[in-house]
Amino acid sequence: MISAGSLLGKMVRSLCRVSVYGRANLDALDQPGPALIVVNHTTVVDVIVVLGTLHNMGFTCDLPCEDECTHRRHIRPIGTSDLWDYPVTKQACTNSGIIPVDQHDGRAAYRAALEALRAGECVLIYPEGDVKVHEDGSPRDWRPGAAGLAKSASVTVVPIAHHDSRTLGSGSVAKSVLWSFTGALRVPIIRMRIGKPVSPFELAQKNTKEVNELLSAALDQAWQEASSGVVFD
Length: 233
Hints:
By secondary structure, the chain is an alpha/beta fold. The protein has helices at residues 4-15, 46-56, 87-93, 107-118, 145-153, 173-182, 200-203, 208-228, and strands spanning 17-21, 35-39, 59-60, 73-80, 99-101, 122-125, 156-163, 189-194. The chain has one domain (4-228): Glycerol-3-phosphate (1)-acyltransferase, CATH 3.40.1130.10.
């Protein structure tokens, strides 16, 4: 059976073109110890865009390798439990490290993510929590989970922004996935910006509110650069 990461990597290559800027900022994830990736959220199919692209760059959502590992790092994304309700997305979630979150009660997912971070793992989170997007797709206010995780676990945080995954599909899980496949001939171009990492030292003396403001500003900056189409590196 094809692994979750490999499936997503193949899907993103077949459905769209992703221009990635700031690749050198991913080097921070090569270092041992806990790390948190924060990503803007505009549509459920940006899971394909983000996780597929990261897999193709060596950062996979697959479960830890049993034999010799050729990946740069394994990551633990937090994803809506609805992803298990549809055949295509269920296959992508199978044998992955995805942490399912209930949209009505995220406490179990928060505890699982915190446990993963304290074990030195890398967690990926969509801090906005849903896809009720602004018209321009810009990041919205964060739910408290991401800042709480960053503060509690003293982690390196890497912001990743994409623009505009909505050209691939939007709406419900079923509608978005169907649109992304039936409209594949469009071959949309999506820009992804890897922002400057925020070190745990920058977070250490801040309260959770200040951490939230710092990290959301970092993601906003990455989105501004992704949306502008200007090459910064």
